[in-house]
Specification:
alpha/beta, five-stranded mixed sheet, elongated
């Protein structure tokens, strides 16, 4: 274990950070279809064939394209208006619109840069000394409100509290009781194994949910997140916390339920923390992962 774990850490962590982003999906609505929009499309296709930074799909439905970005199917929607080539020809400051899924800051910034580069390169024959009013401009729009960095950490802190809570309750208590020999006293009672496991899950769920709600409240107070006055919002947050806790407690029982020494639980818990957290996409976009790690990220709970 002492030899295997550092090697696995090296492979997982080494492929989880600072990789080259590839395959960021963009949907294009080309309402122009004339010379200059075709040049822009050619430049974007060169990015698809060359560095493979983006993938392109085209559609004629502007509203559906933006809806697909909101639903996570695409990272951005590029709209080339029907007067783009005409304005370019008469140097009337032509513009294109780029709707970005800014919930992933690294990916959205990469897309903004590559589209800006493709746009500037459509008529790049010389470097003008004065401002060129005929140069096309990128009008980028973030689809979501910009979230303060400290506030964006709160959901992760809540999940961390749930993860740590499920590691120190539920299956861990069962292994500790087995290690101390307390579990034998359970067998003297009319309780079945299902009753024992169900009781441990309920106790772990209660303790962990209380901790997670407390952490959420403190996190919101520290970072200045306003409390919603709608009961439905709080009920949905509580439901997400309960379901997440239930899922992780059940996962812990599947993975750790048959162990007999708490020391092994600690080792495996630390191992799971690295294996499940870093390839989750919470730290760095999944688009930078190699194919085998992307496959793991899709099934990572």
């Amino acid at each position: 274990m002492s030899i295997l774990l550092p090697i696995i850490y090296l492979v997982i962590l080494g492929n989880s950070f600072q990789g080259k982003l590839q395959g960021l999906p963009i949907v294009v609505v080309d309402q122009d279809g004339a010379e200059w929009s075709q040049r822009l499309m050619d430049n974007l296709r060169a990015l698809v064939k060359g560095p493979k930074t983006v993938t392109l799909d085209q559609t004629s439905d502007e509203n559906q394209a933006i809806r697909n970005v909101r639903q996570g199917r695409y990272k951005a929607c590029l709209i080339i208006p029907m007067d783009f080539s005409k304005k370019k020809a008469v140097k009337a400051a032509p513009e294109v619109a780029l709707f970005l899924d800014n919930t992933d800051g690294i990916s959205s910034e990469t897309i903004r840069n590559v589209v800006t580069g493709a746009l500037r390169a459509i008529a790049l024959t010389y470097v003008p000394l004065r401002e060129d009013f005929g140069s096309p401009q990128l009008n980028d729009i973030n689809l979501y409100q910009q979230v303060d960095y400290r506030q964006s950490l709160v959901p992760g802190v809540i999940i961390m509290a749930i993860f740590l809570g499920t590691q120190t309750t539920g299956a861990f208590n069962l292994v500790m009781d087995r290690f101390l020999g307390v579990d034998e006293s359970y067998m003297l009672t009319p309780l079945s194994k299902g009753d024992i496991v169900g009781g441990l899950i309920i106790s772990g769920l209660t303790v962990t949910t209380i901790i997670a709600v407390f952490i959420m409240t403190v996190g919101m107070l520290i970072t200045g997140i306003s409390f919603s006055r709608t009961f439905g919002h709080f009920a949905l947050l509580l439901l997400i916390i309960v379901l997440t806790t239930m899922s992780l407690l059940s996962l812990m029982f599947v993975l750790l339920g048959r162990l007999r020494h708490p020391r092994v639980v600690g080792i495996i818990s630390g191992f799971m923390n690295v294996i499940l957290f870093f390839p989750s996409g919470a730290v760095y976009p999944i688009a930078s992962f190699p194919e085998w790690l992307k496959l793991f990220a899709t099934i990572n709970p």
